[in-house]
Amino acid sequence: MQKKNHMTDHKTRLAVFCSGSGSNFKSIYQAIAEKTLNAEIVLCLSNRSQCGAMEFARQQGIAILHITEKQFDTFDEFAAEMVKQLKDARIDNVLLAGYMRKVPDAVVKAFPDKMLNIHPALLPKFGGEGMYGLHVHTAVLEAGERESGATVHFVNEEYDKGKILLQRTVPVLAGDTPESLAARVLECEHRLYPDALEKLLTLQKS
Ligand code: GRF
Questions:
Q1: Is 119 known to be catalytic?
Q2: 206 has a pLDDT exceeding 90
Q3: C-alpha distances in Å from residue 193, one per residue of 2, 57, 95, 153
Q4: Which of 15, 52, 60, 153 is the 20 to 30 Å CA partner of 42?
Q5: Is residue 7 part of a domain?
């Protein structure tokens, strides 16, 4: 019998955090299936038990974890349980994909340079507190920008301030509404996040 090489065999174990429709989660899942990235999504974590992302995870047989602050007496207990669950599942990397809660600092600290987020604009512009969903695209249009885009960045304790891993632009077109711009950016996100994941896996190998 051939001896297994655990260094090369190990598939990167991913947890994806979501709150919404989960279209980025789905695109990452598809990309892993198609591009044979050496990774697998082993956990979908959400603050909402019934969102599209959780439904998709259930359909694919991916473990789900519905966890919110409200289930605990203190925020610290909530954070500690999140860390425990991620460690118990032997998660290597965490991908935030439309997770609409601030990740507790204890969780961020437990995954230094191992947690990514996607933001629907060209950071460092149009990031930070309050910059989510259509607010981002409204701000981009009000600023008269000629291009927008999406950014995948490492997560640190400061909102949208971690090191940028990958960024891609899309044009802002005459007559754009926040909704039309959001749709164009989201389409871009669906290619960007899998590419960023590939880049992360390559960086982690070297
Ligand atoms: C995306 O626009 C992402 O950039 C933002 O939230 C949205 C999530 O969409 N953080 P989905 O749930 O992946 O469809």
A1: yes
A2: no
A3: 36, 18, 9, 10
A4: 153
A5: no
Active-site hit among 6, 10, 119, 190? 119
Which atom of ligand 1 lies closest to the CA of 22? 12
Q: How far apart are CA 59 and CA 81, in angstroms?
A: 25
**Residue 4, pLDDT score:** 47
pLDDT in tens, 79-128: 999 999 999 999 999 999 999 998 999 999 999 999 999 999 999 999 99
Residue 97 belongs to a domain with what CATH number? 3.40.50.170
Assess if residue 45 is contained within a domain: yes
Q: How far away, in angstroms, is 9 Cα from ligand 1 center?
A: 31
* Ligand 1 atom nearest 25 alpha carbon: 13
61 lies in a domain? yes
For residue 3, tell me if it sits in a domain: no
Domain that includes residue 64, residue range: 12-205
Q: What is the mean pLDDT of residues 40-67?
A: 97
